[in-house]
Amino acid sequence: EVQKHSVHTLVFRSLKRTHDMFVADNAKPIPLDEESHKVKMAVKLRTEYGSVLHMPTLKENLREKGGPNTGDPYGHKQYSGNQGQELEYLITGTHPYPPGPGVALTADTKVQRMPSESAAQSLAVALPASQSRMDANRTAAGVGDIYRHAGISERSQPPGMSVAMVEAGGNKNTALMAKKAPTMPKPQWHPPWKLYRVISGHLGWVRCIAVEPGNQWFVTGSADRTIKIWDLASGKLKLSLTGHISTVRGVIVSARSPYLFSCGEDKQVKCWDLEYNKVIRHYHGHLSAVYGLDLHPTIDVLVTCSRDSTARIWDVRTKASVHTLSGHTNAVATVKCQAAEPQIITGSHDTTIRLWDLVAGKTRVTLTNHKKSVRAVVLHPRHYTFASGSPDNIKQWKFPDGNFIQNLSGHNAIINTLAVNSDGVLVSGADNGTMHLWDWRTGYNFQRVHAAVQPGSLDSESGIFACVFDQSESRLLTAEADKTIKVYKEDDTATEETHPVSWKPEIIKRKRF
Fold this sequence. Notes:
By secondary structure, the chain is α+β, with helices and mostly antiparallel strands. It has helices spanning 7-21, 34-49, 59-64, 67-70, 117-126, 131-137, 143-148, 161-167; strands at residues 57-58, 89-90, 193-200, 206-211, 217-222, 226-231, 237-242, 248-253, 259-264, 269-273, 278-282, 290-295, 301-306, 310-315, 321-326, 332-337, 344-348, 353-357, 362-367, 376-379, 385-389, 394-398, 403-408, 415-420, 425-430, 435-439, 444-449, 464-469, 475-480, 484-490. The protein has a domain at 200-490: YVTN repeat-like/Quinoprotein amine dehydrogenase (Methylamine Dehydrogenase, Chain H, 7 Propeller), CATH 2.130.10.
């Protein structure tokens, strides 16, 4: 009598029988079928690299593999541009293809185009030099390399090597190498800054500050409608200028002429002659309060920004409005000029930053990464980069296209002002009176300052409206809501041992966007 078993038992018995039959072959690799492997590799090659298979192949790569024929098991034909000369590149032809739709691809019907000799030669000439030639021609690092690698002491390869690899056609297969997980570089040590002078004299909030190019004095503008000039060394008042009928929001001293420019909430932009201490020019055109101004470093052009959502470019001499930069949809809070393109950068309460073409008077790039008002923008004095400050983040960008570099997170307040010096110390001043100091390259916050308000002021009056380094970059001046100007300097007694960098790479993370 046949014993009846459940389907479950029978399936398991069958599995066991199968396992016993093939137990000797268990975990053995399947023998490689040459033909199918060739097909598989050809498919892979076409799928992964189909778009670049027609491009030139480096000859030195082929030489390592034993020549063009031995290095190509799949029968792709090679063609050298000029057989008589030692060319750097071999120019390959197209893949074989049928002469028309519906025609089978056979040895008789296939068509294969080869480049003409002249085209091959012109392509070889246009291509960048190989790695070996670049190594032979390389001299000391250029200025661009020095700027690009400034402060990176742990560099293990000569400047330009990584760039050269790309320029040489990526012949090290960099695209195929596994990428390392990004790690935070160790920040450069900076001595802490300490408060050493508080200057009082204004009767209202001090809204703006600028140091003259000779580093002898500095100028401040205030909500008391006055502009005051102070001696930088002693902190004594030298001069008061009256003329604005509302808060003075911006001041700047020209390096090209003995002029001081100011702007205010009275819609006025004034040019003061410092030899006579009088207003000699007015620039009329803004329809609302003027929030900031900057001078072009190489040409006699003044740029102002206003609550009327525009920035205006003025000819300093003729007082003519050269361009009205329109495009922002809310008040423009800050404007900066530089000699290189883009020559004008604006930050606005519409949360965007715009990079402008000065000649055309049009926007080159609009950066929309910030989520809140951009009240401050600062350009690095040496690198081709800039930073923008907003309550959501401080962001760093690359010129000329405004490529995002990194976020500097942690200053959770309304950031009114940014300043940076050549050592890579970035300062952010906020509405709540806090000031954070950052290492520019790594974005590490190495110091936080909250100075006490002037006796007699309310604690709520502790905002920082503007900050600037003097020309020697050894002093930092801040314009504050307690009606004072505070002067900071580096602590000369501090060392890396007494003030170590409390830096943990696993904690400090760079957020993207």
